[in-house]
From TrEMBL:
Residue ranges that the Swiss-Prot or TrEMBL entry lists as coiled coil: none
GO MF annotation terms: protein-lysine N-methyltransferase activity
Domain SET: 30-270
InterPro entries assigned: SET_dom, SET_dom_sf, SETD3_SETD6_MTase
Protein's recorded name: SET domain-containing protein
A GO-annotated cellular component: nucleus
Length: 475
């Protein structure tokens, strides 16, 4: 990081020196240590029991002083004493007032401070040293093109592409906003002395994305030492994390849990997250994962819809639909689909109005009622033709799901190139299998819903009005 071949590897510090850093800065260890799990060294460092532990009978396993939490609130406090950090946050404007913007910019500055080539930049703080202990994560944004091609047909492929585009926009925003700051121009952007590259921004993003936790009272943040703990879901989760009344971070063994010396202390990164999100944010899947759990498929308004431009203009919801598995049953949900399936004959209307400043904008109406696209489903549920709208939706979604299935099936038997690494190959293969199984189940659900809706009185009446025995194209 922060290198053009001159400072390769500067970010690394031996993990066995982390306890010294932690204790010096007030982190309290109680029956645990941080290091590689014996026999699983390839997984990196984690939190390990140092002696017999039993939930409910031990004090917090870790207590992290609130000053060490990498949160937006703490970064704003640090900026009061660090003019370089303050300059950065002010320069990037609204982005610097978001948690993500503040944390990523802070991490990049700490990396800059650590670089041997920089002088008199930033104020040293305990977290400057901490980031040296954080390993690089092989997230899909770092997969090669050949490795990303293995994701064709999965929901991860467009997610990675969108993320890379987003990261590039952020990077260009950062560059534009800071290139007039003298020290940034010299150490970041100058053709000869500048050291920051887009890859550095990607690494900072991966560092944050793979370690961010939502702590009560602190929001999304990085919690030193706690963020070394690995993930396990369900009953396998050994510990919980929270903050105490003073805002300090705590790692607590779950009630009833017993961990022998050398056992791993795991936390959950979110049991409800699907296979795609786990690979996207953390770069792994648990061995026990048997379902993709949730998928989001994009959805477009048909090009022959005369209202397509207006619908796109007024829509405030994500253009797609969510397929999910819950209690062994597969279902779907979407706010966008309802805007796709209704038309002018149903009662949808658009009007152009002029604003106070003289600009013109399009306003949507549903049967003379001003339309909020996030509440469209509620409006349609009150309509006598609700079953007709549902049928149109299920037909359209079934077509979209079947198209996705076809794409995934074309990837079956994909050959492995010599340059493709083990982790991307294994993860892509597992994800394709899991998502294909969920899609097949979704087709079955949609077919059942479609058959039921066809028998409804409203649909039968609509079929009669539409032309008796003629086949109706509900899409």
């Amino acid at each position: 990081m922060i290198r053009r071949g001159r400072t390769e590897g500067w970010l690394k510090q031996p993990i066995d020196t982390l306890p010294r850093w932690a204790i010096f800065h007030g982190v309290a260890f109680n029956g645990v240590k941080i290091g590689p799990l014996p026999g699983f060294e390839e997984r990196g460092s984690t939190v390990i029991a140092d002696h017999d532990l039993e939930g409910g009978k031990v004090e917090p396993l870790l207590t992290i002083p609130k000053e060490l939490i990498i949160s937006r609130q703490n970064i704003e406090l640090l900026a009061k004493a660090d003019r370089h950090l303050r300059e950065l946050l002010e320069a990037i404007g609204d982005f610097g007032r978001t948690t993500r913007g503040a944390v990523l910019t802070f991490l990049l500055l700490q990396a800059t401070i650590c670089c041997p080539e920089t002088h008199d930049v930033g104020v040293l703080n305990p977290l400057t040293e901490y980031i040296k202990f954080l390993p690089d994560e092989l997230l899909p944004t770092f997969w090669t093109e050949e490795e990303q091609d293995l994701l064709t047909g999965t929901t991860l492929k467009p997610a990675v592409r969108a993320k890379l585009n987003s990261l590039l926009r952020e990077f260009e925003t950062l560059r534009t906003a800071t290139e007039s700051i003298e020290w940034c121009a010299k150490y970041w952007w100058d053709e000869d002395t500048g050291m920051v590259t887009f890859e550095d921004w990607m690494r900072i993003d991966a560092m944050y994305r793979s370690r961010a936790l939502e702590f009560p009272g602190a929001g999304d943040c990085m919690m030193p030492c706690v963020d070394m703990a690995n993930h396990a879901s369900g009953d396998a989760t050994a510990a919980l994390y929270e903050t105490d009344d003073d805002g300090n971070g705590l790692l607590l063994l779950r009630e009833g849990k017993k961990i022998a010396p050398g056992g791993e202390i795991t936390i959950t990164y979110g049991d409800e997250k699907g296979a795609c999100e786990n690979i996207f944010s953390y770069g792994f899947l648990e061995d026990t994962v048997a379902s993709a759990k949730v998928m989001f498929l994009d959805l477009d308004i048909p090009s022959d819809d005369p209202l397509r431009p207006a619908k796109i203009y007024v829509s405030t919801v994500a253009p797609g639909f969510r397929i999910f598995e819950k209690d062994g049953h597969v279902d779907w949900e979407s706010d966008f689909i309802w805007l796709v399936v209704i038309n002018e004959e149903d009662g949808l209307d658009f009007k152009v109005r002029q604003t106070i400043d003289g600009k013109r904008e399009i306003q949507a109406f549903w049967k003379e009622r001003e339309l909020d696209t996030t509440k469209l489903r509620e409006y349609l549920q009150e309509d006598p033709a609700w079953d007709v709208f549902q049928l149109r939706a299920t037909v359209l979604l079934q077509q979209r799901v079947e198209t996705q299935i076809d794409t995934l099936q074309e990837m079956q038997g994909a050959k492995r190139e010599f340059s493709i690494r083990d982790v991307p190959w294994i993860l892509a293969e597992r994800l394709r299998k899991l998502e294909l199984e969920l899609l097949v189940s979704a087709v079955s659900t949609l077919e059942h819903q479609k058959s039921s809706l066809v028998e409804s009185e409203a649909v039968q009446r609509y079929l009669g009005l539409a032309g008796g025995d003629e086949e109706v194209d509900f899409s």
